[in-house]
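Researcher: Re-running this chain for the archive, since the previous output was lost when a drive failed. Same request as before.
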Amino acid sequence: MPKKKDAVDVAVKHRMSPQMLHPLAIDVLKDYFGPVIAAVGQVLLRQGPLSFKAILFQAKQFQHSGPRSQMDAPGVDEAPETVFRQLDESLVRSALLTLIRHDMVTVSIRSALSKEDLSDPLMAATRTPDHGVYAIDPRRILMIQRTALFQGNVLLAHGDTAQFIVEEMALLGSDSKEGVLDHFALRILWRENDRAKAHYEDILEEHNWNFAEAEANKEVNEKELLEKPVAAAIKERVSPVFDKLVHYGILVRHRKFTVAALGGGAPSPEHEAGNNKRKAAEMAGHENGNGKEPTGVSLPYGTTRPIPLDGKAPVIPVDKERKHATWYKLNWNYFLYEFRGQLVARYWGDRLGSKVVEEILLRVVQHDCRHYGLSATGGGDPFMLRDKSIFVSADFDSLPADDPLAQLLRDDADREGVLLRDLYSEVLARLERLSKPAKANSTSLVSTHIGGGRGGRSTRTIQIDYEKSIELVKNECALRLIQDAHGLPARRIFRMLQDRGALEQKDIADLALLDPREARSTVHELTSAGYLYLEEAAKRADMNPNNTSYLFRVKEHALDEVPATVALHTLLNLRVRQRAILETNADLLHSQETDTDTRRLPQYPRIMRCTEAVTTLYHAIHDVDKTVMIGTCFSEFHGVGGAV
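Model: Regenerated structure tokens:
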């Protein structure tokens, strides 16, 4: 059985505290998928990679003893004991299916035999050689709560329909193109997606669609509904946008798996007897054993709906067209790449105090994202490398009149009272300063090159060094956290130790121009918070304490570990607070949804206060989550949900 420390390997690798990361991941699972999936995720997070039988066994152990560990945080409830008591094979398979479809759990094949057993032909023939092992990644769990942020970027870049497709993929996790289009059409025809329905009113009116009749027969005529002309018309309009998202790398292929690998199907009876390998594979849930596709799969349609405790998930037939179809999933790497680029562009825009610089760099980011997405799909568009978004005219006269960049320049020129040509030259000079290395033997943060462009015009090509720029952003984020938590003297001391390496306490007070008592108190605060550590430097070989210097240094990975832990703890507390308000005022919020005129209700002031509090917490959660993304996702962001 895997060691328990395997459960924290991912957190340690990416400088995140498992004491905060794991409870937060469980809380997100419970919020989005219900208590059953949260219980299975809790077992995998606590115990590490497990086989299917081990998951069932560990769930029973949780049921009887209900252990609490140091990974629990105050205010976060574990899955109820009743949930573990009712977990059976069907529910665990359905939960694993949902987690695999959302790319939160991966299945690997591990040998059950030692090297000595494998070298013995008789032992290898009589023992089961392989079994499936399920491992969960808490980073991918956190990605689902960022869908709203990423949808906004897709809306601006590709339009409303692309945003709706991203929303559907967040609900389904992964599916074939036909499955996504079917699900999208059904939600519109059942009036489950009013925002998308408003964009297809012309199709609905053309076919005289009756919502009441469709909702009354929701569970009966699903297949017949998809065969109607109205559904075909909706899918025909959405299909080109889906292909566009695949082309740009926003949607990528899911890893190849059979439907039985997700818990569906069973071996045929004629192949079952006497085949230990197939029996073990059936228990592990990684293959159906006879090499044939099953006729159906236990798949909850709309995976955000909690799996019921007292029944199996509905079975959806898998027709011949969808059996061997290509499955797609959201490319979280693309969204992280885009978020990183926008962050860098806004950072340099604020640093230089110029919206024009920010707009120029945002254009560079937009081009880089498209090129990155094309590289993720394995293809490429030769015209994309010549996209005008990466080129900036070397003189203002070459800018088109309707260019948004020209409008920003006009606004700045009117505000500052300078000529447009002079202002544009100043902006380019600022970019030129960025292109010069800050220190000897270092590379530039933004490189520029002036050369010939299309039509014989002189253009300036701009490239951003994202890695170095994001390090500056992370450093600035950590300094702001230090200043907010410990004051401006703490920021000054930390910045000084970053530059000088190591200093004694008396030297810190002198160089920071602080009172020795205040400096000592501040240094001890930073040491307790995990930013600094004390190092003994003996001047003599006998280690005489009178000849030993005590130096304070910046702790390695402090800029990654401490801000991420603080942000995770804050994010967890905000989510707990938001859920407490929603659960306490559930009746009030329900009355607001059912009553058309809430202003006439006597509890209207309470409804407004509750709504305002929930909205404020919602925005605070997303703001803090951006800090988590800054501190944790860019160390090795290529490992989160990319193309497989």
